[in-house]
Write a structure and sequence with these properties.
Elements: E1 2-7, E2 15-20, E3 28-34, H1 36-46, H2 56-66, E4 70-80, E5 83-91, E6 97-102, H3 104-114, E7 118-120, H4 122-128, E8 130-131, H5 133-154
Parallel strand pairs: 4-7
Antiparallel strand pairs: 1-2, 2-3, 3-8, 4-5, 5-6
């Protein structure tokens, strides 16, 4: 999955991150409500500023690396109501995989900093994902254009009360 958009809310307006599938016949969007601080942290990872001090997620990535591990992926594993659950996949120096429970917002903040792949379990997508309506609109436009093309191709001069070879009456 890829991060499609990040909406940083304030006050009573919730923040939202939208993930988008990039494989399969029909793209899906997975909206996840997160806190505004977490949304800002993800945004800062997407658009890093030169010379800025390391954030908590930068520290976490540096610590994992200093201990001989590396971050491998982020997995959105479950959803209960409006609460999502994620795991961070780490790989130790010897190749052993370790899965660490994480909030999706923290895992995604680390993913954007480290360039990690993001996955969502099929049951999460079945439960909480929405169709990418932009793709649906494009399909509808293509279908309408095809119908119009077929209509134009089926026209004949008789459809316009024009007899071939007759001069314009004007």
């Amino acid at each position: 999955m890829d991060i499609e958009s990040i909406v940083v809310g304030g006050g009573p307006v919730a923040s939202l991150i939208v993930l988008k599938t990039h494989d399969g016949p029909a793209a899906l969007q997975l909206p996840i409500r997160i806190g505004s601080v977490e949304a800002t942290a993800i945004s800062m990872g997407v658009n890093p500023r030169q010379g800025s001090r390391p954030m908590t997620h930068d520290l976490l990535a540096s610590t994992i690396s200093a201990l001989g591990g590396r971050c491998a992926s982020v997995r959105i594993m479950a959803v209960q109501g409006t609460t999502f659950f994620a795991q961070l996949e780490l790989v130790r120096e010897g190749g052993e995989q370790v899965f660490v429970d994480a909030r999706p917002s923290d895992a995604l903040a680390l993913a954007v900093r480290e360039g990690l792949p993001i996955y969502a379990a099929d049951d999460v997508l079945e439960t909480a994902a929405l169709p990418d309506f932009r793709g649906v609109e494009k399909d509808e436009e293509a279908h309408e254009l095809e119908e119009f093309h077929n209509f134009v191709e089926s026209l004949s001069p008789e459809d316009f009360n024009v007899i071939p070879g007759d001069k314009d009456p004007e």
